Amino acid sequence: MSDAPIYKRVLLKASGEALMGDQGFGIDVSVVDRIAADIAEAKALGVEVGVVIGGGNIFRGVAVASKGGDRVTGDHMGMLATVINSLALRTSLSKISVDAVVLSAIAMPEICESFSQRQATAYMDQGKVVIFAGGTGNPFFTTDSAAALRAAEIGADALFKGTQVDGIYSADPKIHPDAMRYERLTHKQVLDQGLAVMDTTAVALARENNIPIIVYSIHEDGEFAKILLGKGRCTTVSGE
Ligand SMILES: Nc1ncnc2c1ncn2[C@@H]1O[C@H](COP(=O)(O)OP(=O)(O)OP(=O)(O)O)[C@@H](O)[C@H]1O
Ligand SMILES: O=c1ccn([C@@H]2O[C@H](COP(=O)(O)O)[C@@H](O)[C@H]2O)c(=O)[nH]1
């Protein structure tokens, strides 16, 4: 394995759902601690890391809409869930002495700083882990889209999606256990074939900005660093 990471600055989209561990809801601190350790390993390789965390372990806006409630309010609740997860990750990182800051797309100055592209980039240049909370700050989006947006804004070399599965398959492997895993795909193939591991807005944004997407299992200890070193199990999505 080479000692030099293949990317200098990355954006990690960490699964919200993964944070609940076996509990079925909420935050399992041991899982957050493990993800923090993975980020620390990447930092130790000299990689600059920005993070967006989902909110699926707490709340998704569609849950309100599907019961006849107001979608926008539901999405506000979902974005607040991502703030809770971001604060949990900052806590886990600070326990292992990794300097991290939470920047929220929704102003809540008593709790964390507000997002601005300039401040985010300045913090990353200083070597801090920047955790982008509150999604895009707009309803009808997802944290996948927020991750692609922030990746473009900070000039990330790659967008990592740490999720429940170890790559992109020909169909959802949770529903079709015989689906085939891809090593490499283009953004166009992901969009044309409707491979639903990431939402289409996020993939389109990454494609327009020439940002590779790496999909891997966030449940595998040390996989993030391995992939950064050019090894590890994942699917890489890049330009055609
Ligand atoms: N073609 C595919 N290849 C791989 N996974 C797929 C595919 N189609 C659907 N999926 C599903 O997509 C899921 C990832 O989607 P999703 O973004 O909702 O989860 P997440 O990473 O846990 O995000 P969140 O942060 O919102 O909780 C995988 O767990 C997998 O079951
Ligand atoms: O830009 C955004 C990002 C997220 N939301 C809402 O938050 C939840 C949780 O995010 P996931 O990506 O599903 O983990 C999402 O379901 C939306 O309700 C948003 O409105 N805008």
How would you describe the overall organization of this protein?
The mean pLDDT is 97. The chain has one domain (9-237): Carbamate kinase (3-Layer(aba) Sandwich), CATH 3.40.1160. It is built from eight helices and nine strands. By secondary structure, it is α/β, with parallel strands linked by helices. The chain is globular. The chain starts with 8 loop residues before the first strand and ends with a strand. It has a nine-stranded mixed beta sheet with strand order 4-3-5-2-1-6-8-9-7, sandwiched between helices. Helix 1 (29-44) crosses helix 3. The chain binds adenosine-5'-triphosphate (ATP) and the ligand O=c1ccn([C@@H]2O[C@H](COP(=O)(O)O)[C@@H](O)[C@H]2O)c(=O)[nH]1. The site of the ligand O=c1ccn([C@@H]2O[C@H](COP(=O)(O)O)[C@@H](O)[C@H]2O)c(=O)[nH]1 has 22 residues, from helix 3 and helix 5. Pathway: Pyrimidine metabolism; CTP biosynthesis via de novo pathway; UDP from UMP (UMPK route): step 1/1.
Keywords:
8 helices, alpha/beta, 9-stranded mixed beta sheet, 36% helix, binds ligand LLZGTKA7, Carbamate kinase, 240 residues, binds adenosine-5'-triphosphate
pLDDT below 50 for ≥5 consecutive residues: which ranges? none
Strand portion, in percent?
Answer: 15-25%
Count of domain modules: 1
CATH uppermost class? Alpha Beta
Estimate percent helicity.
25-40%
Distance from N terminus to C terminus (CA atoms, Å) equals 27 Å
Report the mean per-residue pLDDT as an integer: 97
Instruction: Note the total helix count.
Output: 8
What is the architecture at the second tier of CATH?
3-Layer(aba) Sandwich
Order of helices and strands: EHEHHEEHEHEEHHEHE
Structural class: alpha/beta
Q: Please, what is the CATH homologous superfamily?
A: Acetylglutamate kinase-like
Task: Tell me the major beta sheet.
Answer: 9 strands, mixed
Strand order of the largest sheet: 4-3-5-2-1-6-8-9-7
User: What is the count of β-strands?
Assistant: 9
Name every ligand kind in the structure.
adenosine-5'-triphosphate, the ligand O=c1ccn([C@@H]2O[C@H](COP(=O)(O)O)[C@@H](O)[C@H]2O)c(=O)[nH]1
> Cα-atom Rg, whole angstroms?
17 Å
**What is the general shape?**
globular
- Fold-level CATH name: Carbamate kinase
